[in-house]
UniProtKB/TrEMBL annotation:
Molecular function per GO: DNA-binding transcription factor activity; transcription cis-regulatory region binding
Major localization class: cytoplasm
UniProt keyword Transcription, yes or no: yes
Gene3D superfamilies in alphabetical order: Transcriptional regulator MraZ domain
Species this chain originates from: Cruoricaptor ignavus
Subunit structure: Forms oligomers.
Location(s) in or outside the cell: Cytoplasm, Nucleoid
Name of the protein described by the UniProt record: Transcriptional regulator MraZ
Gene Ontology cellular component terms for the protein in this record: cytoplasm; nucleoid
Gene Ontology process terms (BP): negative regulation of DNA-templated transcription initiation
InterPro entries: MraZ (IPR003444), MraZ_C (IPR035644), MraZ_dom (IPR020603), MraZ_N (IPR035642), MraZ_sf (IPR038619), SpoVT-AbrB_dom (IPR007159), SpoVT-AbrB_sf (IPR037914)
Amino acid sequence: MNFFFETYECKIDDKGRLKLPSSLVKHLQSIDNQELVIKRAVFQKCLEVYPAKPWEKLMQKINGLNRFVKKNADFIRMFTAGVKSAEVDKAERILIPKDLKTFAGLEKDIVISGVGEFFEIWDKAAYEENIATNEADFAQLSEEVMGEINFDELA
């Protein structure tokens, strides 16, 4: 399975080193990919971490945009602002660059949340606030997003 779906609580040190949970490292190894891309999330103050293959797939779509259309060029520039590559070191850590650490407000307690082809890195307090804020509306959101899908056709 190439998807990330688990949630982990971790710590980040002052230098931005984040020790990944062993099960997450094993998953990365199972998909033969410890080369990662870290970027700012579009809608939240968190980071998105992509293995190389899903990142390449996403960038192929983005590179298909006509750069002679100003809004496309602006989008590409903003979407890729601050993007950094990272690798899992021998101690099963990744280094979160200072600018990205500041953007996401990462201090000490961290949540890693799998969201499909990539995972997010959140400050724990921000993650808990986001989840609590959205719980009340989750049933309605679920119906709006998933209600029209015929799951029998997906099998």
